[in-house]
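C-alpha coordinates for BMP family ABC transporter substrate-binding protein. Go.
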Amino acid sequence: MRRITRIATVGIASTALALSVTACGSDSSSGSGSDDNGGKAAIAYDIGGRGDQSFNDAAYAGLVEAEEELDVQGTEAEPSEGEGDPDKVQRLTTLARAGNNPVIGVGFAYAPAIAEVAPKFPDTTFGLIDDTSKTGPNIANLVFNEEQGSYLAGVAAAKVTESDTVGFIGGVETPLIKKFEAGFVQGVKDTNKDVNVKVQYLTQPPDFGGFSKPDLGKAAAQGQLDAGADVIYAAAGLAGAGAIEATANAGKWAIGVDSDQYEQEGLAAYKERILTSVTKNVSGAVFNLIKSVQDGDPQNGEIRYGLEDDGVALSLSNPAFTEMTDVIEAVDKAKADIIAGRITVKTAP
Protein backbone atom coordinates (compact mmCIF):
# COMPACT_ATOMS: atom_id res chain seq x y z
CA MET A 1 0.00 0.00 0.00
CA ARG A 2 1.22 3.48 -0.87
CA ARG A 3 1.55 5.92 1.99
CA ILE A 4 -0.60 9.00 2.10
CA THR A 5 1.07 12.37 2.28
CA ARG A 6 -0.69 14.72 4.65
CA ILE A 7 -0.34 18.49 4.25
CA ALA A 8 -1.35 20.79 7.10
CA THR A 9 -2.08 24.17 5.57
CA VAL A 10 -2.40 27.30 7.67
CA GLY A 11 -3.20 30.10 5.25
CA ILE A 12 -1.47 31.39 2.16
CA ALA A 13 1.64 32.67 3.88
CA SER A 14 2.65 29.22 5.03
CA THR A 15 2.13 27.35 1.76
CA ALA A 16 5.82 26.87 1.12
CA LEU A 17 6.27 25.42 4.57
CA ALA A 18 3.22 23.21 4.14
CA LEU A 19 4.72 21.58 1.09
CA SER A 20 7.61 20.32 3.19
CA VAL A 21 5.36 18.77 5.86
CA THR A 22 4.39 15.12 5.52
CA ALA A 23 2.79 12.47 7.67
CA CYS A 24 2.09 8.74 7.79
CA GLY A 25 5.82 8.07 7.63
CA SER A 26 6.21 9.41 4.11
CA ASP A 27 9.52 11.06 3.33
CA SER A 28 8.47 12.78 0.11
CA SER A 29 6.07 15.70 -0.24
CA SER A 30 3.18 15.90 -2.67
CA GLY A 31 5.27 18.20 -4.81
CA SER A 32 7.91 15.57 -5.53
CA GLY A 33 7.96 13.19 -8.45
CA SER A 34 6.35 9.78 -8.17
CA ASP A 35 6.99 6.43 -9.76
CA ASP A 36 3.51 5.20 -8.90
CA ASN A 37 1.84 3.57 -11.87
CA GLY A 38 -1.52 4.71 -10.56
CA GLY A 39 -0.66 8.38 -10.43
CA LYS A 40 -1.57 10.79 -7.67
CA ALA A 41 -4.86 11.95 -6.16
CA ALA A 42 -5.63 14.49 -3.44
CA ILE A 43 -8.44 15.40 -1.09
CA ALA A 44 -8.78 18.75 0.66
CA TYR A 45 -10.77 18.37 3.86
CA ASP A 46 -13.78 20.28 5.06
CA ILE A 47 -14.12 22.00 8.45
CA GLY A 48 -13.06 19.65 11.23
CA GLY A 49 -10.56 17.75 9.09
CA ARG A 50 -9.71 14.09 9.31
CA GLY A 51 -10.70 12.56 12.61
CA ASP A 52 -14.24 13.95 12.66
CA GLN A 53 -15.60 10.35 12.78
CA SER A 54 -18.03 11.39 10.06
CA PHE A 55 -17.90 13.27 6.74
CA ASN A 56 -14.17 13.85 6.30
CA ASP A 57 -13.29 10.38 7.53
CA ALA A 58 -15.61 8.91 4.90
CA ALA A 59 -13.70 10.78 2.18
CA TYR A 60 -10.42 9.56 3.63
CA ALA A 61 -11.66 5.96 3.46
CA GLY A 62 -12.24 6.40 -0.28
CA LEU A 63 -8.71 7.69 -0.76
CA VAL A 64 -7.27 4.75 1.18
CA GLU A 65 -9.29 2.33 -0.96
CA ALA A 66 -7.91 3.98 -4.10
CA GLU A 67 -4.38 3.55 -2.76
CA GLU A 68 -4.96 -0.13 -2.10
CA GLU A 69 -6.91 -0.99 -5.24
CA LEU A 70 -5.53 1.42 -7.84
CA ASP A 71 -1.92 1.92 -6.70
CA VAL A 72 -2.58 5.64 -6.30
CA GLN A 73 -0.39 7.90 -4.17
CA GLY A 74 -2.75 9.88 -1.98
CA THR A 75 -2.35 13.36 -0.55
CA GLU A 76 -4.51 14.96 2.14
CA ALA A 77 -4.73 18.69 2.90
CA GLU A 78 -6.18 19.99 6.13
CA PRO A 79 -8.18 23.21 6.56
CA SER A 80 -7.06 26.01 8.85
CA GLU A 81 -9.16 27.61 11.56
CA GLY A 82 -11.25 30.52 10.30
CA GLU A 83 -9.90 30.34 6.76
CA GLY A 84 -11.47 32.04 3.76
CA ASP A 85 -11.83 31.31 0.07
CA PRO A 86 -8.30 32.59 -0.80
CA ASP A 87 -6.84 29.90 1.48
CA LYS A 88 -8.85 27.23 -0.30
CA VAL A 89 -7.82 28.60 -3.69
CA GLN A 90 -4.16 28.39 -2.69
CA ARG A 91 -4.60 24.87 -1.30
CA LEU A 92 -6.28 23.54 -4.45
CA THR A 93 -3.73 25.31 -6.66
CA THR A 94 -0.88 23.73 -4.73
CA LEU A 95 -2.40 20.27 -5.03
CA ALA A 96 -3.07 20.64 -8.77
CA ARG A 97 0.44 21.98 -9.50
CA ALA A 98 1.87 18.96 -7.68
CA GLY A 99 0.34 16.70 -10.33
CA ASN A 100 -2.57 15.32 -8.35
CA ASN A 101 -5.48 14.23 -10.52
CA PRO A 102 -8.18 14.32 -9.36
CA VAL A 103 -8.19 17.03 -6.71
CA ILE A 104 -11.27 16.70 -4.52
CA GLY A 105 -12.77 19.40 -2.32
CA VAL A 106 -14.62 17.74 0.56
CA GLY A 107 -17.68 19.90 1.16
CA PHE A 108 -19.72 22.72 -0.35
CA ALA A 109 -17.38 25.33 1.14
CA TYR A 110 -14.93 24.53 -1.68
CA ALA A 111 -17.37 25.58 -4.43
CA PRO A 112 -16.06 29.13 -5.00
CA ALA A 113 -12.43 28.00 -4.87
CA ILE A 114 -12.96 25.15 -7.33
CA ALA A 115 -14.81 27.48 -9.69
CA GLU A 116 -11.74 29.74 -9.68
CA VAL A 117 -9.03 27.10 -9.85
CA ALA A 118 -10.49 24.48 -12.22
CA PRO A 119 -10.30 26.62 -15.41
CA LYS A 120 -6.58 27.17 -14.77
CA PHE A 121 -5.91 23.41 -14.84
CA PRO A 122 -8.08 22.09 -17.69
CA ASP A 123 -6.34 18.69 -17.72
CA THR A 124 -7.04 18.09 -14.02
CA THR A 125 -10.37 16.80 -12.78
CA PHE A 126 -11.77 18.54 -9.70
CA GLY A 127 -14.28 16.80 -7.47
CA LEU A 128 -16.73 18.93 -5.52
CA ILE A 129 -18.67 17.06 -2.85
CA ASP A 130 -22.13 18.24 -1.77
CA ASP A 131 -22.51 21.12 -4.23
CA THR A 132 -23.89 21.63 -7.74
CA SER A 133 -23.71 25.43 -7.88
CA LYS A 134 -20.32 25.50 -9.64
CA THR A 135 -19.90 23.47 -12.80
CA GLY A 136 -17.37 23.11 -15.59
CA PRO A 137 -15.99 20.61 -18.10
CA ASN A 138 -13.45 19.31 -15.59
CA ILE A 139 -15.64 19.50 -12.45
CA ALA A 140 -17.46 16.47 -11.05
CA ASN A 141 -20.24 17.41 -8.64
CA LEU A 142 -20.59 14.49 -6.22
CA VAL A 143 -23.95 14.87 -4.50
CA PHE A 144 -26.32 12.77 -2.41
CA ASN A 145 -30.01 12.52 -1.60
CA GLU A 146 -29.45 13.17 2.11
CA GLU A 147 -33.14 13.83 2.61
CA GLN A 148 -33.96 10.24 1.66
CA GLY A 149 -31.66 8.67 4.24
CA SER A 150 -32.85 11.20 6.81
CA TYR A 151 -36.45 10.23 6.11
CA LEU A 152 -35.61 6.66 7.07
CA ALA A 153 -33.97 7.94 10.25
CA GLY A 154 -37.18 9.81 11.02
CA VAL A 155 -39.21 6.64 10.58
CA ALA A 156 -36.90 4.80 12.97
CA ALA A 157 -36.97 7.64 15.51
CA ALA A 158 -40.77 7.81 15.48
CA LYS A 159 -41.01 4.06 16.03
CA VAL A 160 -38.43 3.95 18.82
CA THR A 161 -39.32 7.02 20.88
CA GLU A 162 -41.08 6.41 24.17
CA SER A 163 -41.49 10.07 25.09
CA ASP A 164 -42.98 11.15 21.74
CA THR A 165 -40.23 13.77 21.56
CA VAL A 166 -37.18 13.53 19.30
CA GLY A 167 -34.49 16.01 18.31
CA PHE A 168 -32.60 17.18 15.25
CA ILE A 169 -29.33 19.13 15.58
CA GLY A 170 -27.85 20.82 12.52
CA GLY A 171 -24.29 22.05 12.62
CA VAL A 172 -24.76 25.17 10.48
CA GLU A 173 -28.05 26.37 9.01
CA THR A 174 -27.31 25.93 5.32
CA PRO A 175 -29.49 24.56 2.50
CA LEU A 176 -27.53 21.28 2.62
CA ILE A 177 -28.15 20.65 6.31
CA LYS A 178 -31.77 21.71 5.97
CA LYS A 179 -32.16 18.76 3.59
CA PHE A 180 -31.28 16.49 6.53
CA GLU A 181 -33.80 18.29 8.72
CA ALA A 182 -36.55 18.18 6.08
CA GLY A 183 -36.24 14.47 5.47
CA PHE A 184 -36.01 13.61 9.15
CA VAL A 185 -39.04 15.67 10.18
CA GLN A 186 -41.11 14.31 7.29
CA GLY A 187 -40.18 10.73 8.17
CA VAL A 188 -41.15 11.28 11.79
CA LYS A 189 -44.47 12.94 11.00
CA ASP A 190 -45.44 10.45 8.27
CA THR A 191 -44.90 7.67 10.80
CA ASN A 192 -46.51 9.32 13.83
CA LYS A 193 -47.88 12.84 13.52
CA ASP A 194 -48.08 13.15 17.31
CA VAL A 195 -44.30 12.98 17.81
CA ASN A 196 -42.76 16.37 18.58
CA VAL A 197 -39.53 17.19 16.73
CA LYS A 198 -37.21 19.73 18.33
CA VAL A 199 -34.89 21.40 15.81
CA GLN A 200 -31.77 23.38 16.66
CA TYR A 201 -28.87 24.76 14.63
CA LEU A 202 -25.54 25.43 16.29
CA THR A 203 -24.31 28.37 14.19
CA GLN A 204 -25.34 30.52 11.26
CA PRO A 205 -23.19 31.30 8.19
CA PRO A 206 -20.58 32.71 7.92
CA ASP A 207 -19.79 31.09 11.28
CA PHE A 208 -19.13 27.43 10.43
CA GLY A 209 -17.97 26.49 13.92
CA GLY A 210 -21.09 24.37 14.28
CA PHE A 211 -19.32 21.70 12.25
CA SER A 212 -16.14 21.64 14.31
CA LYS A 213 -16.89 22.17 18.01
CA PRO A 214 -18.05 19.09 19.96
CA ASP A 215 -18.97 21.20 23.00
CA LEU A 216 -21.65 22.98 20.98
CA GLY A 217 -23.20 19.69 19.95
CA LYS A 218 -23.01 18.35 23.47
CA ALA A 219 -24.76 21.39 24.94
CA ALA A 220 -27.49 21.36 22.30
CA ALA A 221 -28.17 17.67 22.85
CA GLN A 222 -28.31 18.18 26.59
CA GLY A 223 -30.90 20.90 26.10
CA GLN A 224 -33.06 18.62 23.97
CA LEU A 225 -32.67 15.77 26.45
CA ASP A 226 -33.76 18.08 29.26
CA ALA A 227 -36.83 18.92 27.17
CA GLY A 228 -37.79 15.25 26.93
CA ALA A 229 -36.16 14.04 23.71
CA ASP A 230 -35.13 10.39 23.82
CA VAL A 231 -33.84 10.09 20.22
CA ILE A 232 -31.47 12.72 18.77
CA TYR A 233 -30.20 12.91 15.19
CA ALA A 234 -27.27 15.27 14.62
CA ALA A 235 -25.95 16.36 11.22
CA ALA A 236 -23.10 18.44 12.54
CA GLY A 237 -19.72 16.97 11.63
CA LEU A 238 -17.33 16.93 14.56
CA ALA A 239 -19.91 18.72 16.73
CA GLY A 240 -22.15 15.70 16.21
CA ALA A 241 -19.72 13.63 18.26
CA GLY A 242 -20.51 15.85 21.22
CA ALA A 243 -24.22 15.30 20.67
CA ILE A 244 -23.68 11.54 20.59
CA GLU A 245 -21.68 11.68 23.81
CA ALA A 246 -24.39 13.59 25.68
CA THR A 247 -27.19 11.41 24.33
CA ALA A 248 -25.40 8.15 25.09
CA ASN A 249 -24.47 9.26 28.59
CA ALA A 250 -28.15 9.96 29.24
CA GLY A 251 -29.03 6.42 28.15
CA LYS A 252 -31.03 7.66 25.14
CA TRP A 253 -30.72 6.87 21.45
CA ALA A 254 -28.38 8.77 19.12
CA ILE A 255 -28.56 8.61 15.33
CA GLY A 256 -25.26 9.22 13.55
CA VAL A 257 -24.55 10.73 10.17
CA ASP A 258 -22.40 10.36 7.03
CA SER A 259 -20.22 7.48 8.32
CA ASP A 260 -21.45 4.44 10.24
CA GLN A 261 -20.70 6.02 13.58
CA TYR A 262 -21.36 2.79 15.48
CA GLU A 263 -18.14 1.52 13.88
CA GLN A 264 -16.03 4.64 14.52
CA GLU A 265 -13.18 3.94 16.93
CA GLY A 266 -13.33 7.42 18.40
CA LEU A 267 -16.95 6.85 19.43
CA ALA A 268 -16.52 3.31 20.76
CA ALA A 269 -17.43 4.34 24.31
CA TYR A 270 -20.90 5.39 23.11
CA LYS A 271 -21.59 2.83 20.37
CA GLU A 272 -24.23 0.84 22.25
CA ARG A 273 -26.47 3.94 22.23
CA ILE A 274 -25.90 4.75 18.54
CA LEU A 275 -29.08 3.24 17.17
CA THR A 276 -28.13 3.68 13.51
CA SER A 277 -26.50 6.21 11.19
CA VAL A 278 -27.62 7.92 8.00
CA THR A 279 -24.69 6.98 5.81
CA LYS A 280 -23.57 8.72 2.64
CA ASN A 281 -21.30 6.71 0.39
CA VAL A 282 -18.74 9.50 0.25
CA SER A 283 -15.96 6.92 0.27
CA GLY A 284 -17.44 5.24 -2.79
CA ALA A 285 -17.89 8.56 -4.58
CA VAL A 286 -14.25 9.50 -3.93
CA PHE A 287 -13.03 6.09 -5.09
CA ASN A 288 -15.22 6.13 -8.21
CA LEU A 289 -13.97 9.56 -9.24
CA ILE A 290 -10.33 8.56 -8.78
CA LYS A 291 -10.92 5.35 -10.74
CA SER A 292 -12.61 7.22 -13.57
CA VAL A 293 -9.52 9.39 -13.95
CA GLN A 294 -7.21 6.38 -13.86
CA ASP A 295 -9.40 4.68 -16.49
CA GLY A 296 -9.06 7.68 -18.79
CA ASP A 297 -12.76 8.58 -18.68
CA PRO A 298 -13.06 11.20 -15.91
CA GLN A 299 -16.45 11.80 -14.41
CA ASN A 300 -17.86 15.28 -14.82
CA GLY A 301 -21.11 17.08 -14.16
CA GLU A 302 -23.60 15.93 -11.55
CA ILE A 303 -22.97 12.47 -10.13
CA ARG A 304 -25.86 11.76 -7.76
CA TYR A 305 -26.15 8.99 -5.18
CA GLY A 306 -29.45 7.97 -3.57
CA LEU A 307 -31.30 5.12 -1.90
CA GLU A 308 -31.63 3.12 -5.11
CA ASP A 309 -27.87 2.60 -5.37
CA ASP A 310 -27.11 2.63 -1.63
CA GLY A 311 -25.58 6.06 -2.01
CA VAL A 312 -27.48 6.89 1.16
CA ALA A 313 -28.72 4.33 3.66
CA LEU A 314 -29.35 3.48 7.29
CA SER A 315 -26.58 1.44 8.88
CA LEU A 316 -27.41 -1.91 10.46
CA SER A 317 -24.33 -2.40 12.63
CA ASN A 318 -26.00 -2.16 16.02
CA PRO A 319 -27.61 -5.53 16.85
CA ALA A 320 -30.08 -3.75 19.09
CA PHE A 321 -31.44 -1.97 16.02
CA THR A 322 -31.67 -5.01 13.78
CA GLU A 323 -33.54 -6.88 16.51
CA MET A 324 -36.32 -4.27 16.41
CA THR A 325 -38.32 -6.18 13.82
CA ASP A 326 -41.22 -3.74 13.56
CA VAL A 327 -38.85 -0.80 13.16
CA ILE A 328 -36.82 -2.52 10.44
CA GLU A 329 -40.01 -3.47 8.60
CA ALA A 330 -41.22 0.14 8.68
CA VAL A 331 -37.85 1.40 7.44
CA ASP A 332 -37.73 -1.17 4.64
CA LYS A 333 -41.25 -0.26 3.51
CA ALA A 334 -40.41 3.43 3.50
CA LYS A 335 -37.25 2.78 1.51
CA ALA A 336 -39.18 0.77 -1.09
CA ASP A 337 -41.85 3.47 -1.33
CA ILE A 338 -39.27 6.21 -1.87
CA ILE A 339 -37.45 4.24 -4.57
CA ALA A 340 -40.77 3.45 -6.28
CA GLY A 341 -41.83 7.09 -6.18
CA ARG A 342 -44.76 6.53 -3.85
CA ILE A 343 -43.12 8.86 -1.31
CA THR A 344 -41.50 12.11 -2.40
CA VAL A 345 -39.16 13.43 0.24
CA LYS A 346 -38.91 17.19 0.66
CA THR A 347 -35.51 18.86 0.37
CA ALA A 348 -36.44 21.89 2.49
CA PRO A 349 -38.50 22.21 5.68
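The chain has two domains: 5-144+282-307, 146-280+318-340.
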